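hi! just following up on the protien thing from before. the input was this:
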Amino acid sequence: MKQSLKVISLLLSLALLFGMLASCGTDTAEEQTAADRSAISDTINVYTALEDDIIQAYLVSFYEKYPNIEIKITRDATGTIVSKLIAEKDNPIADVVWGTAVTSILSLGDYDLIEPYDPEGIERVLPQFKDKMTPARWVGIEVPEGAMVVDRKALEAKGLAVPTGFDDLIKPEYKGLIQAPDPTISGTGLLILSGILQLKGEEAGWEYLDALNKNIDQFPPSGSKPAKNVDAGETAIGLSMGYRCVKLAQENPDLEVVFPVEGCPWDVEANLLIKKPVIKEAAKLFLDWAISDPALEACRVEYPIVATGGNGTVPEGYNQDPVLNLSDKIDLYAMAAGRDSFFTDFTEKYLAPRGADA
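and the predicted 3d structure came back as:
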């Protein structure tokens, strides 16, 4: 009996020892892997539609983690980015698409340009902000919503009230006082104007856009330009992304931000891996980093809604629960599927006649 107890005790001691050694080995292996990744030296091409003034701030934590990886940024409007990628499809230059509207970049799948990839930490991303397929074709980082910024003084001088939603914008008194982004070039323009079709339904949506077009002064080829033009005193009402509207209103006390009472149309600024003969490890590391806590905390400085949800911190100028501003009628996949036909119809109805008049 005593001999048996000694044997059992010895076996338990050996098991405990092997467990400790295995644990140490795992920790060492993980530390070695992290060190190996940090030492990777390479250059990747990143295409993005993120705003110029936030890109470098976002990248700080990447360079801290991967100091030997050089990032070459190509920044342009969403439509221009997508057109460039398609033009380069036979010899892709980009390695990664970063922070670009998913309703537009999903079209790259039609050209076999998407390499599905589940970045490290994807399980933390909320279901509505990542692809429903596995591995994921796209993963979101932040959620831009459509809003408007208004020059309160300019409207007061004309005896006009500040609009509360989209329905106000088609009133005749606002004729010539509104700008909206060109949706065929701007992802923000697409999420707002195509989103209206989902808010109101296809038939009623086009009837609304017919009426809105009569009040539109111009369709600038940039998501932030209508808001910037309000700030510059060039127009009274600008449809743009909430982030840009809030930022300008923080700096200019004459401006007021309006989140439409009908609910905000929205999109997801997302990342994806470009399919090419040689896919760089550095490109995957970039996508892993892009949904990490440090990366998303940088996004949260400007955007109250990021892909992993809120943390109770909301930038000044937003409602304290900004998710409630988002319309529950938005279907990103339907918007993406109808993108090209929307471009055709929108151009024929509204953009082409303006060009002819010019």
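The first strand starts at residue 42 and ends at 48.
Confidence is low (pLDDT under 50) at residues 1-18, 20-24, 28-32.
cheers
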